[in-house]
Amino acid sequence: MKRSAFSLHATRMAVLALAFGSLAGCESLNDMFASDRVNYKDTPTAPPLNVPQDLSSAPNDQKYVAPPPTVTLGGAAQRTVTPAGNATLGVPDAQDPFGMHVERDGDRRWLVVDGRSPDDVWPQLQEFWTENGFTLTTDSPSTGIMTTDWAENRANIPDDWFRRTIGRVIDFAYSSGTRDRFRVLVSRGPDGQTDISVTHNAMEEVLTGQDKTGSKWVERPRDPALEAAFLAKIMQKFGLTDAQSKQLLTDARPSTAGVKIAAGPDGTTLDLPEAFDTAWLRVGLALDRTNFTVDNRDREKGLYFVRYADSMQELKGDGLLGKLFYNPKKASKDQGPEYVVAVRSTGNSTQVAVVDQTGRIDTSSDAQRIVSALHAQLN
């Protein structure tokens, strides 16, 4: 007899509970799993998957009058009250009455916070992910990289009559069969701005075998709507209303320039007809859209340190079983080599190339594949 996805997950949870019964002693199931619980599973305010298109325009008074500043508790960055009544983290002006705006490149959007440094916004971003039920696995202000753990969006589980009644007793056995993770890149922009991007990664558990009694995890495409939803929530954390944040997403300013690929005697490079500040951000966003993840970066030297991202191995490190059986030292050896992507200013344009340890253009086939992937994403 074929088993459903619910039966598969329920059986696993029952076996797991029995296996750990002797270790738990008098503890209840809730106590046993409390340390491994992800709030993203239980929160009733999970982000919507779509941003409404029929939004009314937020009232924007282009005549900015300097209002009195306010300071939040704990010595956080100073906020300013706008003519619309928002205590915004950004610094408003005539072009950005809310102190921030959104720019886009294709289906990617990022937030630009005016008059603030990455150090000003970092504590607010830390609070944001904690409030939304995530644990940060990477929290590196020096590199501007922030990564959440893999978490389950319980809002994806159908709320049918069985779950609302009998299912509440064994709600822990339900699973959406999906896991989400988010990466944030925080970069210093021109004119004292800070650029914030959110990238979504996803995995899905699918049933396998003729009788559907087994399962395996596979990658799912990133969800631009979910990225936009979290970007809207960040804007709300920074002082905007729900309607205002969604309006800024709708009014995102295009920031796109054509990218040319140049094959020379020393190797293949990319030429971006824009200044370093813009090119640096776009390359970081493009890398996040490929199967390579940014481990580190040095903006002063214009270097991104990347490796091939094996989401399956990373997912194994999260959750109860991962914490018990996953060997991070062994996994790090299996992640493959690290590559260096160099972003170099050439006057009014910027050159992008994969380089070796000596700084010369890497001509290996793997390096050229990275260049090709970046070219596809940047165009």
Layout: helices, strands, pairs:
Layout: H1 5-19, H2 21-24, H3 29-34, H4 39-42, E1 69-71, E2 78-81, E3 87-88, E4 100-105, E5 108-113, H5 118-131, E6 136-140, E7 145-148, H6 161-164, E8 178-188, E9 194-208, E10 214-220, H7 224-237, H8 242-250, E11 253-254, E12 260-264, E13 267-272, H9 276-289, E14 292-298, E15 303-308, H10 311-316, H11 319-325, H12 328-333, E16 338-345, E17 350-355, H13 365-378
Parallel strand pairs: 4-11
Antiparallel strand pairs: 1-2, 2-3, 4-5, 5-9, 6-7, 7-8, 8-9, 9-10, 12-13, 13-17, 14-15, 15-16, 16-17
Protein architecture, described:
The protein has helices spanning 5-19, 21-24, 29-34, 39-42, 118-131, 161-164, 224-237, 242-250, 276-289, 311-316, 319-325, 328-333, 365-378, and strands at 69-71, 78-81, 87-88, 100-105, 108-113, 136-140, 145-148, 178-188, 194-208, 214-220, 253-254, 260-264, 267-272, 292-298, 303-308, 338-345, 350-355. The protein has 379 residues and is of the alpha+beta class. Helix 7 packs across helix 8 (242-250) and helix 9 (276-289) packs across helix 13 (365-378). The chain has two domains: 38-254, no CATH class; 257-379, Outer membrane protein assembly factor BamC (TATA-Binding Protein, 2-Layer Sandwich), CATH 3.30.310.170. The chain is globular. The longest helix has 15 residues, at 5-19. Strand 9 (194-208) and strand 10 form a beta hairpin. The N and C termini lie far apart (50 Å). Helices cover 31% and strands 27% of the residues.
Provide a compact summary of the structure:
Keywords: Signal. Residues 1-24 form the signal peptide. 31% of the residues lie in helices and 27% in strands.
